[in-house]
């Protein structure tokens, strides 16, 4: 069973994951229109992943005797100065999701709800992975700076990251 507090917190998480999916879709669109096809592929992929994260939560809440609430979504930012800003927004979004997951984990410990605690471990690991990926990409972009051929190669390179996921 889910307490009211945990059900509410899980529903907040559903909202965050759904918003992340839309944010990344807007980022994919921005990149695709400019011609960064590798980056667009990366964010289409991320958007899909976030939808899967959301669905996992929806099913879990419903199976545990709660009711998933399907949120209306915020309009995502869809214009970016450059790739550096794009990936900075990505990192910030992931940090926000991590903070929320950590708080949720804390709440499950307070309530001694080990079933939900256990379920959330997958999200804890996923967040660590996503944050470190965002940081690695930002480091690369810092090295590239304004170099045009470096940016071209970066866009090609990132296709490899999509292929691995
Ligand atoms: Fe689901 O928010 Fe990141 O991965």
Note the main attributes of this structure.
single chain, 165 residues, mainly alpha, binds hydroxy diiron-OXO moiety
Task: Describe the 3D structure.
This protein is mainly alpha-helical and 165 residues long. It has five helices and no strands. It has helices spanning 4-34, 37-63, 83-110, 114-144, 148-164. Helix 1 (4-34) runs antiparallel to helix 3 (83-110). The chain is elongated and about 55 Å long. The model has no long low-confidence stretch (mean pLDDT 95). Hydroxy diiron-OXO moiety binds next to helix 1, helix 2, helix 3 and helix 4. Residues 17, 20, 49-50, 53, 94, 97, 126-127, 130 line the site of hydroxy diiron-OXO moiety (OFO).
- Main structural class: mainly alpha
Helix content: over 70%
Give the number of helices: 5
Radius of gyration: 17 Å
Assembly form of the protein: single chain
Distance between the termini: 34 Å
Largest sheet: none
Rounded mean pLDDT score: 95
Which hetero ligands occur in this complex?
A: hydroxy diiron-OXO moiety
Shape: elongated
Q: Which segments are poorly predicted (pLDDT under 50) over 5 or more consecutive residues? A: none
